[in-house]
Structure formats: C-alpha cells, structure tokens
Design goal:
The structure is a single chain. By secondary structure, this protein is an alpha/beta fold. It is built from 16 helices and 27 strands. Helix 3 packs across helix 4, helix 5 packs parallel to helix 6 and helix 8 packs across helix 9. It starts with a strand and ends with a helix.
Length: 519
C-alpha cells in the first residue's frame, strides 16, 4: 500500500515509485505544498482546496471499499459535471477500481449495452435517472446503484460522509487497468478501450512538459468529463502540475470570457472557438492573461484558426488523440503552429503513414495512420479478436484515420478510413473536398459523405452550412468546385442545411447524414 492522507507522496518519493504507483498517487505527488490553496473553483465561486480534494477523495474511496467490490471491478459513472464527480474519479483510482465514464446523453438502450458489456459492480447515476437505470442494473446483475447530483445530493455522498478522511491508496502497477473508455460508436457498436495507469501517467507527464505546464497556471475547464479530452488531458494536466482549475458545469461563451482574465490555459473543441468568436466581447484584451489555447476532438477549420489569431494575437494549438491512445501529436508550444495540421508526434510516440500494402507514404501522400507508444491502450474490453485485427505484426495500432505529412513532418488528418469514398474506382478523401468547399464564398462549414450510386458504386455528396446572411445554391457550388478539382471528386449533390449534426465533443456525425441523404 502507498500511504496517502491528503496530499499524497511528493517529489523524489513519487518518482521512485512511479513504476509501480497508482495513478492517483502519481498525480498527488505534484500537488502543491500549500494544501490550503485552491484546487477547484466553480463558476459560482465555490472553492475546494487541495486538502479538500485529498480528504474527500479518501472518504469516497472508503465508501467504495465498504461495498466490497472485487479488485479491478468496474465503476460505471453517468452523472452531470461537478467537483464531486471529479472526486469520484480520483476515489475510484485510489481504491484500485476501474473507472468507466458514460456520456450523459446516453439513454436506456445504450446504457443497457454498456452495462451488459462491461459488467460493472457499481453504477453511479444522477438521482433523476435512478428510476430507469436501477431496473437495468438489477436485470443485468449489477450489485450496487448509487446516485450523485450536481448539487451535492445523492446516496453516494450520504454514505461517504460517514467515512474516514484517511485512506491507504491501493498500489497499482503500470499495466493495471485504470479506465475503460467506450468509443463514440458513430460507425458501429462502441468498443471499450482499456487504458492502464501507465498509459495515462505517461501521457500526463509528456503533455506537462510539451505544453509547458507551470506553477501558477490556471485551467479554465469547460469540457465534459466523460471523454478523454476533458477527463484525462485537461484534468491530468492541471493536477500533475499542481494547477488550479476554474470549473464550469458546461460551456457558455459569456462565462468563459468572464473568467479568462484569471486563467492561463483553455482547452476546447472547435465549436467552442466558433462560439467565442461570435461574441464581440472576445478580443485580445480578454485574452491578455492567457498563454495557451488548445483545440481537439474534431477538426479545426482553417478559417477559425485565422480569425482567432487576427482577433486575439494568439495561435490555437491543435493536437491529435483518440480514446485508444490519449494524445499522439501536437503543434509545438515553442515554434510554428500550422493551421489545418495536428503538428508533430509527441516525444515517445512513433507515428507512420502507410499505404494499403503497409509501405511508408512519401511527403504529401495520403495513407493510414499507425502509432505505437507508452500511451497506446492494451486492447478492447473482451474483444481479443478485434484487438488483434487493430494491431500490426510489429505492434503498431491502426488508428483508422487517414492522413499525410508535409516536408516539415507536420501531420494533417484527412478523414477516417471508413469515410473513404470509392467512386468509379477512384479514392476520394472527404476532408480534401471539405477543405475546398470551406474556402468558397458564403460557406461556413461542410461535410462530405459517400452515398450509394447505381453506376459508380458510391457518389460524392456534400452537406454545407451557409455563413449568416449568405444564400448558397447547389449549382453554383458544384460549378465552383469543377473549376478547382478533378471531376470524379466533385459532389453529385450539395445539400444546404442549417447545421451539421454533432456529438457532444463536436464531431460531425456522418452516419446521421448518410441516413438522411443516402436514400
């Protein structure tokens, strides 16, 4: 066991035990010496000190331990964002259990699938959802269902309030499972990516150095915490550097702008940056204290990148990661940040772009992205065959993403392998067509999909959103593209819509577009 009461092991001791330590203990090793200082401040001014985090996570860990959960038991969590939800995550790590975050938008059929697949011993849900989640849990043999509200209500906290605020953090090894993160499932049934304590800690350390986390940083946290971006990348970055977090329950442009003056780091998805630019109050003065804006989880439009720099004088740092790998590449902190790219492989990451035969692609040649490194997951939960299929013989993970590198080694993502359109025997990469569409006058954003076609097998189809006040006409858009790109790449149809369907992390749900326009 690793003794840890409220601040955790620190400094040299943490590093000495890094090879065997629990992720919580490793993070706690970087907590500031002044445990009375603020760790988390909510949007309405509620403050949690580092001591509060240590003591409260200990009480919750004791509450979990008293349930008699088996070592490595899964704890499925579908709750609204709150500081207590963060404490539950840390407590799960401390207790040596496996954290299973679930999107708050999931409904009964989805929850039933995840519970049946992961077989958690505990489900923590909102009080409002207990009435329909509890019957699913009982039917599938889940031992315990507890509740947690974003107003500090629920049976979980009621039970934890009676527990000791001291807990011996359970020892874990680097390969021990820390979390299972289910993929978004936009192209089929979700798969549970198994991430170890070592996977998450190695990535936290790499990003701490690469993004120059420093004493005195303040993270403005406006992301959801059921996803790699908000849960691991953002939270681990702050905790591993002893940095305070300003904790917003959800993204609201006006609230973000109000808090920017007291923050130094912000992480968001592209939609958030668009919303900020829509607000006239967002300008260089509002960002004067900020040192780093990071974007991920979906492609950032070049126009958004340019507008942001023109408005604030700062360049957004775009990076690339997945549920299965955490972060893989990033534009540099010091150095040129190139729009429409996700930068260079992170230290320790080996990244290659290969053709269909596994041969390395040349500069500018599109191919499949494969990676290996310390943050790459161990495989899919209870899917050994799928795991074997997704790894090459020499141990590289097939990301399913298509990309290309430029002369300086910067990586650009051109789309998912599954999104590749083969029309009349020619390969068409949607991202390429989208980049041309997005440059046309009046086009705000676009999505390109393949739909069934009697003659060509698949036909290129585009869905576009107009900029405010602009009118787009299909024939004019097609004519403009014909002047720019090969005929087989030009969409047969262009549909104008008010907005593109997105999941909660801002990714366009092309499966829904195929359902709507593929008939």
């Amino acid at each position: 066991m690793i003794k840890d009461t409220c601040g955790g092991i620190r400094g040299t001791k943490a590093r000495e035990r890094a090879r065997e330590a629990n992720l919580y203990a490793l993070l706690a090793g970087s907590f500031p010496a002044d445990a009375s200082s603020c760790c988390v401040e909510t949007g309405d001014g509620l403050r949690y000190s580092w001591s509060d985090v240590g003591r409260a996570s200990a009480m919750l860990a004791n509450a979990l331990a008293r349930l008699g959960l088996a070592p490595g038991a899964r704890v499925a969590v579908q709750v609204d964002k709150s500081p207590e939800a963060l404490l539950l995550y840390l407590a799960t790590l401390r207790a040596g259990l496996v954290y299973l975050p679930l999107n708050t938008a999931y409904q009964s059929a989805e929850i039933e699938y995840f519970v049946a697949n992961a077989e958690p011993e505990l489900i923590v849900c909102t009080p409002a959802n207990e009435a329909w989640i509890a019957p699913i849990a009982r039917r599938l043999g889940v031992r315990h269902v507890l509740t947690l509200g974003d107003d500090r209500s629920g049976t979980l906290l009621a039970g934890a309030a009676r527990q000791s605020d001291r807990f011996e953090t359970v020892a874990r090894k680097p390969d021990d499972l820390a979390a299972i993160v289910y993929t978004s499932g936009t192209t089929g049934r979700s798969k549970g990516a198994m991430l170890s304590h070592g996977n998450l800690w190695s990535n936290a350390l790499t990003l701490r150095h690469y993004w120059r986390w420093r004493a005195g940083d303040v993270l403005l946290h406006a992301l959801p915490i059921f996803h790699v971006h908000g849960l691991f990348v953002a939270i681990h970055g702050a905790l591993s550097s002893g940095s305070k977090m300003i904790w917003l329950a959800k993204f609201d442009a006006a609230q973000v702008i109000r808090h920017l003056a007291r923050a130094t780091v912000f992480m968001g998805v592209p939609t958030m940056y668009v919303r900020l630019l829509d607000d006239a109050a967002f300008d260089a003065a509002a960002c004067a204290n900020m040192r780093l804006f990071i974007s991920g989880s979906a492609p950032l439009l070049p126009d958004t990148f340019r507008q942001f720099e023109a408005r604030t004088g700062q360049r957004i740092l775009e990076r690339y990661g997945m549920s299965e790998t955490v972060m893989l590449s990033s534009n540099p902190y010091d150095g040129n940040r190139v729009g429409a790219t996700v930068g260079l492989p992170l230290p320790g990451v080996r990244l290659r772009v290969v053709d269909r035969d596994g041969r390395a692609c040349g500069c500018g040649q599109i191919g499949a992205i494969e990676v290996r490194g310390p943050s790459v997951f161990g495989g899919y939960w209870r899917m050994p065959q799928k795991t074997r299929e997704e790894f090459t013989d020499d141990g590289f993970f097939r990301t399913g993403d298509m990309g290309k590198t430029d002369a300086n080694g910067y990586l650009s993502i051109v789309g998912r392998d599954k999104d590749l359109i083969i029309t009349g025997g020619y390969n068409v990469y949607p991202k390429e067509i989208e980049s041309y569409l997005d440059e046309l006058e009046g086009v705000f954003e676009s999505a390109v999909i393949g739909v069934a076609h009697r003659d060509f097998g698949e036909a290129v189809c585009a869905v576009v959103v107009a900029k405010p006040g602009c009118v787009l006409r299909e024939a004019e858009l097609i004519a403009a593209l014909k002047a720019k790109i090969a005929g087989f790449k030009v969409p047969k149809r262009v549909h104008v819509v008010d907005e593109l369907p997105r999941n909660q992390m801002g990714k366009v749900q092309k499966n829904l577009l195929r359902e709507r326009f593929g008939g």
